[in-house]
Design a protein that fits this description.
With about 200 residues, the protein is mainly alpha-helical. The chain contains 7 helices and no strands. It has 2 domains: about 1-35; about 35-200.
């Protein structure tokens, strides 16, 4: 077991194997949730959406609740380890988790036939559920845009991946932080919209 847990790739593969075993056991025990039909594929898209979303928001919260507030407490000689190793790796997973969340979310909405109703906030038809999930979708799209087109380009400057002087690096770091905080702010009502659309309407 230690061999599996000592390697991240093995750990993730083992997690998916356990998920498959769980599907087999529950289908055999209940006769429900049979893999392969349309409802199952819709569920799989939603599960992947949640999985990607947990990675995205988890990293967003890591940056805002852990890394950014504690950077001033790290001795200057140790900061390069964060800027050269940890932050670039975290930002890679962060932006691709954002992409995965948006793509799978749009797939889920299309498969459940509420994409147009949600994107138009109910103006094309639909009810309260479509309006609420549409609000959440638009917040998610804004957050995704911020990740790819504001936070990441500015982080590349702040981390020295792009040539810039000290003032430009400081300005880029501040801009990336402010948009990351914007995403943290938006994540709270966005998650409320997504969960309430599935459970209250």
């Amino acid at each position: 077991m230690a061999g599996i847990l000592s390697n991240l790739k093995s750990t993730v593969i083992a997690g998916f194997v356990l998920a498959v075993l769980m599907v087999v056991i529950t289908v055999n025990a209940t006769g429900e949730g049979m893999p392969g039909d349309y409802a199952w594929w819709t569920f799989m898209a939603r599960w992947l959406h949640v999985l990607a979303g947990v990675m995205w928001i988890g990293l967003l919260y890591y940056f805002n609740f852990v890394q950014i507030p504690n950077m001033p407490n790290i001795p200057d000689e140790q900061k390069p380890a964060i800027g050269k190793v940890i932050a670039p790796a975290a930002l890679w997973w962060f932006r691709w988790a954002a992409m995965g969340t948006i793509v799978t979310g749009l797939i889920v909405a299309a498969m459940n036939k509420y994409l147009v109703f949600a994107i138009t906030l109910g103006f094309a038809g639909g009810g309260a559920k479509e309006v609420v999930i549409g609000i959440g979708m638009w917040m998610g799209i804004i957050m995704w845009f911020n990740v790819w087109f504001v936070i990441w380009p500015n982080q590349k400057i702040a981390l020295g991946m792009v040539e810039a002087d000290a003032d430009a690096k400081a300005a880029a770091a501040r801009k990336a932080m402010l948009f990351s905080r914007t995403n943290t702010l938006l994540s709270i009502p966005m998650l409320y919209a997504m969960v309430s659309a599935q459970n209250l309407y």
